[in-house]
Design goal:
alpha/beta; 2-enoyl-CoA Hydratase, Chain A, domain 1; seven-stranded mixed sheet; 7 strands; about 10% strand
Amino acid sequence: MSEALRGGEDHAASWYEASARERVAGLLDAASFVEFVPPTQRETSPHLHLFDLPVAFDDGMIVGSGRLAGEIVFVAAQEGRFMGGTFGEIAGAKLVGLLRAARQENATAAVLLLLDSGGVRLQEANAGEIAVSETIRSILEAREAGVAVIALIGGRAGTFGGAGLIAACCSHVVVSEQARIGVTGPEVIETNQGVEEFDSRDRALVWRITGGRTRALLGVADRYVPDRIASFRQVAADLANQAPPFDLATLAAEQQRLEQRLRAYGACRDSTGIWSAMGIADPDRLADLSDDGFADLLASLGASHDAR
C-alpha cells in the first residue's frame, strides 16, 4: 500500500473493534484532523441528567475536517459504545452543522459519515427524530450541490432506525461483513412481534437478514470491503471524487430498481431464499466465503450500484 493511502494509525486494525476516534485517526492522513466542537468545549446533552445517566463530552459524535490521500474531506463519526451511537440534540446538531459547512464552505470536498448507531436516543426522542430529519435534508442539499456523501458502515452498534434512513440517502454506502443495516432493529422487532417473528439472539439470522453481505447483494451497499480500517480508507479515497448525479432521473432509476427487487424477492421469507433466487450455488454456505471469495461472487453477479 502506498504511503498516500496508509493513514495515520495501524492500517491493519479492525474497523469493527476500533473506537470512533481510532477510525477517524486511521482513515485520515496522519495529524490532519481538525475537530469542530471538541470535548474540551463540554457540549453535552441537556437531557440525560434528568434520567441520572452519564454524559459524554462529545455526545458520541465527532465532527471535523482533515485530509484523505491529500484531499480535504469532512468527517463525522458516531461512537457506538456511548448509548449505542444514538441520535440526540447535540449529536444531531453537530452532524447537521458539518453537512451544512461542507456544502457552503467547500462543495468539492466529500463528506464521510462513519455511522455506528442503533437509531434515536429514547431519552430525547423528539430531539433525536428532528436531528434525523434535518440530517436527511442536509444530505440531500449537499448532494444537490455536488458533494459526495459517503457512508462507511461496519461498527458494533450497526446502522438502524434513523441511521439506516440516513445511509439510504448517501451517494455511496460502503460495508464490511460485520455491518448491519436496517430501519427496525432485531430487538425492536422481537419486542413488538415476538421471538417467533425474529429471534434477536440468533446472530446467524441477524447477519443473514441485515448483514453487510446481504446488503451488498441487494444493492443497499455499493462497495464491500474487508474489516480493516485501511480497506475503508482506500475505498473512501476512491469514492471521494465521485458524486453521482442527484436529479429526478436518478430518483426514477432508483425507484425502478426497488420495484424490480420487490417483484423478484418479495415472496422470500429469509435471505437464503433471495440468494437462491439470485442463482447463487449453495446459498447456505455464503457466510463461509472469505472476503476475496465474496468479492468474486459479487463480480460474477455484476452487483455494482455506483449510480445511487
